[in-house]
Amino acid sequence: MKTQDKELIQEIVEQNQRLLQNLNTQRHYECEARQLISEITGQKIPKSTEIRLPFYTDYGHNIKIGERVFINSNVMMVDLGGITIEDDVLIGPGAYLLSVNHGLKPKQRKELELKPVLIKKNAWIGARATICPGVIVGENAVVAAGAVVTKDVPKNTVIAGVPAKMIKKIDE
Fold first, then answer.
1. For a surface tag, which of 43, 107, 120, 164 has the fewest beta carbons within 10 Å of its beta carbon?
2. According to the lineage, what is the superkingdom (predicted)?
3. Is cis: bond before 116, omega within 30 of 0?
4. Cα(93)–Cα(72) distance, rounded to whole angstroms?
């Protein structure tokens, strides 16, 4: 990553941390909260989407949110690598969506590994679930509460556990 890219990222992080603090500690009408989240993400949040507060992100500008999405309270999105949430997704309270990791080797520990997360249409992420970097959650899939998802989730399946494994298919 170039130095000027790091500087721009740091500026956005600092600005968004102030906006997040305002968002999460002050009283806001729904339209005001939606406006603040739109500023944080750099995209207009659809009126059909509901985001319960508090809402957390480390960067903000790499989050894309579709129509009719419901994000419950205390969700954390580590989005420098990119997070896309398609239409009709449900995300339970306290879920973590992570698109950033660090190298395992001690000398590379402070280097960032960026891998986008994609939550496909009509998926449901349960409470306190963790979606790890690079994971695609397939259409209509269900991630059980507390699951740690380290691999792609096929469409129309239910996964659970640590690490998450498929426990059943969903009939369409």
1. 107
2. Bacteria
3. no
4. 5
Dist CA 140 CA 88 (whole Å): 9
> Is 61 noted as a catalytic residue in this protein?
no
Where does residue 133 rank: exposed (0-12), middle (13-18), buried (19+ CB within 10 A)?
Answer: buried
Phi, psi of 137 (to 5 degrees): -100, 120
Q: What is the pTM of this model?
A: 0.93
What's the pLDDT score for residue 3? 55
Angle formed by the axes of helices 30-41 and 3-25, to 10°?
170
Nearest of 36, 143, 165 to residue 97 by alpha carbon: 143
Backbone angles phi, psi at 135, to 5 degrees: -85, 140
CATH (domain of 73): 2.160.10.10
- Is there a contact between 74 and 91 (Cβ–Cβ < 8 Å)? no
Domain count, the chain: 1
- Degrees to nearest 5, angle at CA 37 with 15 and 142: 125
User: Would you say 85 and 66 are in contact if contact means Cβ atoms under 8 Å apart?
Assistant: yes
Over residues 87-122, the pLDDT tens digits come to: 999 999 999 999 999 988 999 888 889 999 999 999
